[in-house]
Amino acid sequence: MSDVIRVGLVDDHPVVREGLRVFLESTAQVDIQVDASSGEEALLQMEQRPCDVVLLDLVLRRGMDGIAAFEQIQRRWPKTAVLILTSYRDPDSLRYLRQHGAAGYLDKTVEPDDLLEAIRQVAKGRSVWDALPPAPTESLTAREQEVLTQLAEGLANKEIAQRLHISEKTVKVHVSHILAKLNVYDRTQAVIRAHQAGLIHWASRDR
Question: Which CATH class is domain 5-129?
């Protein structure tokens, strides 16, 4: 690999890509080969312009999502380092990417010089990972787990309070904490999110 790092940008926000391009190319250490708003667009461009490092957002509003794009890049260009640069802090997705060979993860709040150093490091075959947000299993308390199980059974707050021998007000507080920790907006989403994370199983509704 030459001293100049060939970089691909995959982000659906043009202003983000433009800002990255202006900064990175001003360093004379980076040559932007791919500038794509979708995973499909990135794959087409990479056919003609291979990259040493790809900066990939996980949230792409059209076509394949970031994980699918990562899997395609890794399969077709296994020597390309994929550095996740995203504001989407889903712990399950990030752990999956780490376990399956992503070179690193940085939040979009990263300082420009730190981003450049991360690109240098992953281009050398090293890993650069910000601290991952806690998984739901690590952040829910024992009582919140109990309330979550009752939510999965379709019980109302009053019924949960009776079953767990706590006040209905306390149940409301626990539900509020569960929604915040699972990063969802209502009870139904909480149950779906918890099922995806392996915290509950649909069979629990039949108890």
Answer: alpha beta
Q: Assign 3-class secondary structure to the chain.
A: CCCCEEEEEECCCHHHHHHHHHHHHHCCCEEEEEEECCHHHHHHHHHHCCCCEEEECCCCCCCCCHHHHHHHHHHHCCCCEEEEEECCCCHHHHHHHHHCCCCEEEECCCCHHHHHHHHHHHHCCCCEECCCCCCHHHHCCHHHHHHHHHHHCCCCHHHHHHHHCCCHHHHHHHHHHHHHHHCCCCHHHHHHHHHHCCCCCHHHHHC
Closest CA to 147 of 120, 111, 187: 187
Assess contact for 187 and 150: CB atoms under 8 A: no
Tens digits of per-residue pLDDT, 172-196? 999 998 888 877 778 888 888 777 6
CB–CB of 36/62 below 8 Å?
no
The architecture CATH gives domain 136-206 = Orthogonal Bundle (1.10)
Spatial separation of the C-alpha atoms in residues 32 and 34, rounded to whole Å: 6
pLDDT for the residue numbered 6: 97
Q: In the chain, where are the structural domains located?
A: 5-129, 136-206
| Residue positions counted in the chain | 207
